[in-house]
Amino acid sequence: MTIRKWTLARQTGAGLLLAAAVLLTNAGPAQAIEACVARLSREAEAQGIRPDIIARMLATAKADERVIRFSSSQPEYETPIWDYMAFLVDEQRIKDGEALLKQHAKTLAAVEKAFGVERHVVVAVWGIESDYGKAKGDFYTPHALANLACAGGRRANYFRDELMKTLLIANRGDVPVDKFQGSWAGAFGQTQFMPTTYLRLAVDFDRDGRKDLVDTTADALASTANFLKDAGWEKGRPWGYEVKLPNGYKGPVGRRERATLATWAKRGLVRLDGKSLSGGLEAGLILPAGNAGPAFLVTRNFDALFSYNASQSYGLAIALLSQLISGGEPFKAAWPTEDPGLSRAQRLNLQKRLAEKGFYNDEIDGRVGPATREAIKRAEANYGLQPTGRPGYRIYQALGGD
What we know:
Blueprint: H1 5-11, H2 13-26, H3 29-46, H4 51-58, H5 65-70, H6 75-78, H7 81-88, H8 91-103, H9 105-115, H10 119-130, E1 139-140, H11 141-150, H12 156-172, E2 181-182, H13 195-201, H14 217-230, E3 240-244, E4 254-260, H15 261-266, E5 270-271, E6 282-286, E7 295-298, H16 300-307, H17 312-325, H18 344-356, H19 370-382, H20 393-398
Helix pairs in contact: 3-4, 8-10, 9-14, 10-14, 10-17, 11-12, 12-13, 16-17
């Protein structure tokens, strides 16, 4: 998701939870948010937002503990990377991406020409952010932002500003008031822009007078390319290379610890695709699963992907998906685990099998929340496995998965 919203919210999750608890204790959730939203509404009107827009977007805002809870726990930071990658870069997402590259070939060619960002990279961001526009998000973003602004904490001003920008976008007529469906942190649209980023980088690519990243695919794709261009993407420069470390490697590690490819070759690194590691292109070494897992030399183009969500795992997911939908190869080195992650189809099947065996009686939707994790723990205990609640291949296989 756009800019650093995961990181910002994660850093202040404890503070938001504490502030929310204070609100609940002192005034009750309904009264507390009602008073806060009234103040926010007055502030928005003072900034020139039409009263009818404010009323339609904020009048029904209610306290939502899910927003506060999600703000302190994010998958990019807490999920093992082999689970994260298996879920985000699965067969269906690759297949859909390949089809959409063809379906939107004309638009993507124009976007690539205008912004200098390869089409498969733009489509990969689209796929990771919203499953190509199919996953709109679970929250009405103005209400989510109101909850975050009203909860207090060090980032309250940040979320209040994002809320005001959301109202401004609606006030300008770019997006209808009922179309702001997205994340708990305020991102919305097919490629999940935060409101401030929307106002700065959104593009009216179809020239209809509206920068519509919700219902206009051309605008969403062009805006994504514009974001990456602004973040420093350079056409023709690879995002990086998968490499092998020499035994006992103890050299520099880190995205910002850059050196030329020739220097990395002198340090004993070799490319896993068999090509030479040479030249003056600068890259940094990242080890997302430690020295025992896959290793990558990443360039400033990877930094541009990273900037979309300030997460190394996220950047790698886009990099891999873009590689695969454009006919490239998957990563060669295996993740250091004996219990691989599951694709979305396998997660759905896992829930079905948990239900069939009597461990789970909630909604079967492939989404792994608290109820699914508790069911997995019960199943793991039943099959003599350590109860972890993790949707891995070991419990999937024990339940009869393929």
